[in-house]
Amino acid sequence: MGHGYLFLSTLVTLWVILDPPGLLPVFIGLTKSMTKKERSQAALRASLVALGVIGVFAVFGQQILTYLHISIEALEVSGGLLLLLVALQLLMGEQDEVDESKSSTVNVAIVPLGTPLLGGPGVIVAMMVAVQGVSGVDYLVVGASLIVAMVAVYLFLRFASGIHRVLKDAGTILLTRIAGVLLAAIAVQMMADGVLGFLK
After folding, report:
1. How does 25-45 read in b/e, with b if 16+ C-beta sit within 10 Å?
2. With contact defined as beta carbons under 8 Å apart, do 115 and 18 qualify?
3. In whole angstroms, what is the distance from residue 54 CA to residue 52 CA?
4. pLDDT per residue over 5-35, tens digit each?
5. Which of 152, 200, 178 is nearest to 14 (CA)?
6. 19: nearest Cα among 191, 143, 180, 186
7. Mean per-residue pLDDT for 96-104?
8. Dihedral (C-alpha) 95, 105, 87, 50: value to the nearest 10 degrees?
């Protein structure tokens, strides 16, 4: 019963923070120049990168931040700035001019999709909190909830190809601009949380 509650509570927390349905417009906007195969590869890479980043911070997060003298607030502000730059690219259409090479597909999957969109400060903090005070099997339970959450994220991103096909180019461009606005709001909120944390 205890393990089940820990699994569900961690999974729900991760799901709410990751918000896969809300990420779909941003994913489509960032990958609209890619083929279906490249988009699927980007979804897989982004999910794996996020899983790796979140996993590392879950295990070594506090030690890493302490060693580098980095606060969670600093992570939020820096992550927010990075997302804001991406949002401006989406809003101004600069994403259209990105080189459509294999390397650009990998780069988009790693930054900003893998991190900080998926493996961002919010989910990192949530995982660091989840592993505090647990031991033994509970570590595996928390790890399992993270894996399930990331599999769900990957499946949602895989649906993006079908959505892109339905929207066509005009609809995708519109969705890209909307995604830019949403991403800018997420970025500003992330930076605001960081600044408020500094003030406290």
Report:
1. bbbbbbbbbbeeebbbbbbeb
2. no
3. 6
4. 899 999 999 998 898 888 888 898 888 888 8
5. 152
6. 186
7. 49
8. 180
- Position of tokens 């991403």? 183
CA dihedral 103, 59, 145, 130 (to 10 degrees): -130
The single residue listed with the structure tokens 């400060």 is 121
> Can you give the length of the chain in residues?
200
**What average pLDDT does range 127-155 have in this prediction?**
92
Residue type, 84: L
Other CB atoms within 10 A of residue 3 CB: 13
Q: In degrees to the nearest 10, what's the CA dihedral of 73, 75, 77, 79?
A: -150
For 14, the token pair is 């991760």
Contact 14, 123 (CB under 8 A): yes
Domains of the chain: which residue ranges?
A: 35-199
State which amino acid sits at residue 164.
Answer: H
- Least-confidence region, from 13-17, 44-48, 99-103, 151-155: 99-103
